[in-house]
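Protein folding task:
====================
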Amino acid sequence: MEHIFHTTEFTVNQLIEKIESGELGLPEIQRPFVWSNTKVRDLLDSMFMGYPVGYLMLWENPKTEKVKSIGTDSKSYDSPKEVIIDGQQRLTALYAVMKDKEVLDSNYKKRAIIISFHPLTGKFEVGTPAIKNNHEWIYNLSELFTSSTSSKFIKTFKKNLEEHNIILTDEEEDMIDVNIERVFNLNKLYKFPVFMIEDSADEEAISQVFVRINSAGTPLQQNDFILTLMSVHWDEGRRSIEEFCRASRIPSTGEATAFNSLGIEISAQDIIRTVMGYAFNRARLLYAYKLLRGVDLEKKGVVSKDLRDKNFDTLKAKLPDVMDVTNWHEFLKAIMNAGYRSDKMISSGNAIFFTYAMYLTAKYKFNAPDKTNKALASLWFFYAQMTSLYTGSFESVAESHFTALKGFTTFNEYKQFIAARVNEALTDDYFDITLPGSGQGGLAVSGSGNNAWFAYVAALNILDRKVLFSTSNLKVRDLMNLGIDGKKKSLEKHHLFPKAYLKGLNYPDTKINQMANYAFIDWNDNIAILDEAPSIYYPEICKGRTQKEINTMEEENALPHGWENMSYEDFLEARRKLMAKIIKQGFETLKSNI
């Protein structure tokens, strides 16, 4: 590996000077500053004690156009010579504390890092109001690091102790002098070992070096390198992704943004997956990275600047479609139309963004009619979510789909592809045997929810079913909208055979919490049901309802007629079959719309 990196070392001060001048750039590879203040405290404490705090990895980058720098000050280098690959959080922490700078947290809001130091004991702590009022502490170490000299700071600190009648022995005064001096000189004396990766190194080589020298850290993923490349070659695009992701977490105050009623928060990786599927018909992030480096995937070993520029041009042309808020919200209507009205129902974010890539492909490549395109997206997402299509080796599965799309020239081919794949998987045997069973993805399991359960809830929404036991016209979907819940959930999952009742019959939790023993009901009704046997509470609930109304309620909520008098085992078996039947009805409804 000698030809792709060399080792060196820098003092903290040398690294900070590089950051200040812009010689060392921060390309925002994977995240804003996500460390807690306690981690910053521990870092300084370890350095103070002389312990190693890990390697840094820098990537030589002599031909960059512009990358983001730590802090907000202007830099003398417009084109950094190196970028930080591993060590972003440590260097950001040290820069913020030693230069008294604010950082951006995970929600892209500015915050200060206040670390306190007790010079007599050599103890570090996160700054608190109590420490601020204790004159034996240096409340904010940034004041020490930004002082012109340590001697001046020590003199002022001791004078403050004297003014507050804190008397020190000669030995204690010497200890304070030594400890403050040690902290002040950390930036000059503490050295970081550095692995300097050469510009010619590829992603695989960098990953191997990273794993070997920093196996205890957070491994870099392919999308981290993609974001690095974007920061180097198209910083505006990287920043627009960041802003789109940030907006998905913050309620809009006016115009439409990426924020949505489903509560879906977007990550940079989600955007990368979508645009790579839509623009390049690729699902593997490794391929995406290679494309943006200019690697010819058809000719082994060929790397071309012209090909890199061409692929970046494609990225620049297609990324705006992905982050167009109208496209995004129109697509989310398809997800909601599939019955998935909350992010809590969606176990795989991959299903959202691979489906979004297909939706955009149909819209722009095949000129799909909007209504039909949404219907196809709804059907595909329902299928993908229910069958856990994009879990496990999901990149291989998605890659095969995008490869197929690449060969199509008409919308009819695309439509036939969707229908064929869905019908191949969701057969009568699937609904009659697999879904009611105990195998993977079946309903005969215990827990808070699996994809089969969420498909059942989605089907209730598709079929516009009323909330079980409710005397009003409230629908299940009405009570799942973001923001409708108060302090208590408005929609609760209820044990149809109550938990306490089954406990009294010595059933274990795994049997009590079977999916088939759950139903969504209005919480006001739930409070009244208590812990009686179904044969006792159900007749009370049914009082005032006609037999026709009872039959309709049971049919709409997969309750076998006479269920309240069944044995628990017979009830579970019968209800699973009825739940599968409702899921199939929801599926058939979606199919009828294409």
